[in-house]
C-alpha cells in the first residue's frame, strides 16, 4: 500500500477555513475602500526579489529573519519581509511612468523567519499605504488621518496613535555626542515596552554612563500632556527646530479636526528599522496594549536612494492584518462570519436543473449572490448544507411552480415562507430581507 504523506503545515504558517477567511476579507474590503477615499491606488510587487535589493536597508535583525536561497538559475534571491523596501525599488524602477506625489496601497503577504507568538507569524499580511514625492507636514498628517479613519471604519474607536520624530531624537543624541551610536540606542529604546525601564537603562548604560542613560530615559518618558512632552524634548534636543515644529503643526491640526485625544506624543517610539528619517508612528489598542502595535510606519526620505539618484521622499504606514485580527478576536469584536451566498436554490427535481440555473443567473444579475444545490438529495441534507454555510434564504421550485412561473421563498432560520411569487416579486422580497439583515 502506498505510504501517505502527512498533511502538515510549516510552523508559523497557517491554513484559513472560510469562517476565518471571511472576516479577514471583510476587513480588507473596508481598508481598500478607505484607502481609495483618500486617493490611494493599488499596486503589487513580486514575493521574490534579488537579495541585494532587500538587504540594502533592512537592518541587522531583519537580515537574520529573511528567507534567502539560491534559485534554479543560481540567483541569490529572498522573499520580501515587508512591503516598504520592495516599494522603494518599485518607485525607482517606474518613476518615469508615475506622477508625483504618488499615493499607493499594497495588501499582500510577507515572510519573516522569526519566533512565533500571539498575533505574530512567519507568513502574514501587511496592509501598506504610502505617499511619495513630497516631504511636508501635510503628507505626514494625511497618513495619520488615514490611520485614524481606517480604524474608525473598522469600528475600532478605542485606539491611540503614538507619534515621535527621529530628527528631534537625533538632535538630542548630538547634544550627548552619541550620534554615531544612534542605531544601537534606537534598537534599545525600541524595546522599552518589552523589557521595561530598568533593563532599558542597564543596556543604555552599557553604551554610555549612568548619567547619560538617565538623560536618555528622561527624553523618552512621556509627560502629562503632549505640550509638556514637546517642551521637554525640545529643551533636551537644544531648542526649537524644524523637526519639533513639524510635530507642533501636526498636533495643532489634530486639535483643529477635533481628534487630538487619539494622538499621543511618545518619544519612546523610534521604530527599529534604520530607514526612517522623520516622523514615526505606532498604534495601540487601548484595551489590549500588550499585543503591541497594530499599525506602524513613518517618514523615509532616503530609502529609494539605494536604487536611484532621484530624490523620492516618502511617508507611510502599515497595518498588520494578522495581529489586528488576533486582537479583535480576543476582544470579541471580529466581524461575525457571514455567508458569501445569499440564496440557495434547492433541488426539488433534477429535470429542472436548467431552470434552476436560469433562476440563479437572474438573481445574480439583480445583485443577489445565488447558488444551485448540485444534486437531487433528500431535503434534510440540503438544509444541513445551507445551515453549515449560513445561507439565509432558500428558493423552492417544483415542476408545477415552473409551469405557473412562480417560486417559493423561505427565510431558512425563521422558516417564514412567501409562496407563489413571480420572479420580480421574489427579487424584491429577497432584496428587502437582505437589506434588513445588514442594517
Give the helix/strand layout:
Elements: H1 18-37, E1 41-42, E2 48-50, H2 51-55, H3 60-65, E3 68-70, E4 76-79, H4 84-94, E5 102-111, E6 123-132, H5 137-153, E7 159-165, H6 166-175, H7 182-189, H8 192-205, H9 210-220, H10 226-236, H11 242-256, E8 263-265, E9 279-285, E10 295-300, E11 314-320, H12 321-330, E12 343-345, H13 353-365, E13 370-372, H14 379-388, E14 393-396, H15 399-404, E15 407-411, E16 416-421, H16 423-437
Parallel strand pairs: 1-5, 7-8, 12-13, 12-14
Antiparallel strand pairs: 2-4, 3-4, 5-6, 6-11, 7-9, 9-10, 10-11, 14-15, 15-16
Helix pairs in contact: 1-5, 5-11, 8-9, 10-11
Features:
single chain, 8-stranded mixed β-sheet, 5-stranded mixed β-sheet, 16 helices, elongated
Overall spatial form: elongated
Quote the beta fraction.
Answer: 15-25%
Q: Quick check: average pLDDT?
A: 92
Described by strand count, sense and barrel closure, the largest sheet is: 8 strands, mixed
- What's the arrangement of strands in the largest beta sheet? 1-5-6-11-10-9-7-8
Structural class: alpha+beta
Radius of gyration: 27 Å
Distance between the termini: 56 Å
Tally of contiguous helical segments: 16
The number of E-state strands comes to 16
Query: Could you name the ranges where pLDDT drops below 50 across 5 or more consecutive residues?
Result: none
Q: What is the percent of helical residues?
A: 40-55%
